[in-house]
Amino acid sequence: MRKGFAQLLLLIPFFLLLTATAVFYYKQDKLTKTQTPNIVLQSPNVSTALSLSNSPAFASDPSSSQSTYINISDPIEINKITWRKIESERVSLSFNYPSVWPIAFESDEDLKRDQDFYNRTLSVVPDQPYPLESIAFTNEWIGNAGEDSLGWFIVTRQKGIETIDDYVKSVDNESEIYIKGRNVTIPRPKIVYSKVGGETAISVIDQSGLANLSPTDSANDFIVIKNGLIYRLFATPSFKARINAEINAKLFKEIIASIQF
């Protein structure tokens, strides 16, 4: 009897180990089945230039705006930056976008209203751009009014502009504007060439020194012509005037580096 009881005691550790192993695998299996898909990309530390070259990108529904309000004056926590891939359903365009920036898309209704305005005024202003897509780096898309934005992505089509050379010819000249009762000569802008999404891009740098002529941060204002469409991505000066200025500049560069047409 004692011998049998001793043998039973020897088997107890084995049964305990077997039970613990079964519980462990049961929990792991349950966790795997209930875990949501990974839909965000954790960005490296900003000090490593926020490299995305070795990381996957995930699709996002362009029709939905930011689900929560983002105050662009709040300090950015580096370790909480994630990325998602934004794809336009209207034009050939995609880019990666940081979770710490707000984003809003022009609705179909607003876009149609802009296009109708274009059609009504075409005879008066024949060289105005025809709107195709508008994405604002703000919490709510409300045209040119409302809260501060960090930047915009605008896609248009314009008569006589089919290539980047056509665009350069249209802006690379002196002009005159009427300011405070007199005509002021505006010197030719500085044209800076670069590459965006594998395409030739230009930045048109105002040389007049008149702040009201530069509603964008011209060093971060890029124009690409692809298949007759004018793609313009620009940051507003306000994104440099905030506590996150250095981080915002790096985030903007990452957006540019991820663009695909």
Explain what you see:
This protein is an alpha+beta fold and 261 residues long. It has two domains: 1-35; 41-258, no CATH class. Helix content is 26%, strand content 26%. The chain contains four helices and 13 strands. It has helices at residues 2-34, 108-121, 164-171, 245-258, and strands spanning 41-42, 59-60, 82-87, 94-98, 104-105, 130-136, 151-157, 175-179, 182-186, 190-196, 199-205, 221-226, 229-235. The strands form three sheets. It has a seven-stranded antiparallel beta sheet, with helices on both faces. Strands 1, 2, 3 and 4 form a four-stranded mixed beta sheet that branches. Mean pLDDT is 74; it is low at 1-66.
Give the tags.
four-stranded mixed beta sheet, 26% strand, alpha+beta, 4 helices, globular, 26% helix, 2 domains, 261 residues
Number of helices: 4
What's the alpha carbon Rg, rounded to whole Å?
A: 27 Å
Count every beta strand, where a strand is a DSSP E run of 2 or more residues: 13
State the helical fraction: 25-40%
Strand content: 25-35%
Looking at how many chains there are and whether they match, the oligomeric state comes to single chain
Biggest sheet overview: 7 strands, antiparallel
Quickly give the structural class: alpha+beta
Q: Provide the domain count.
A: 2
- What string gives the helices and strands in order? HEEEEEHEEHEEEEEEH
Distance between the termini: 82 Å
Overall shape: it is globular
Mean pLDDT: 74
Give the strand line-up of the largest sheet: 5-6-7-13-12-11-10
Uncertain stretches of 5 or more adjacent residues: 1-66
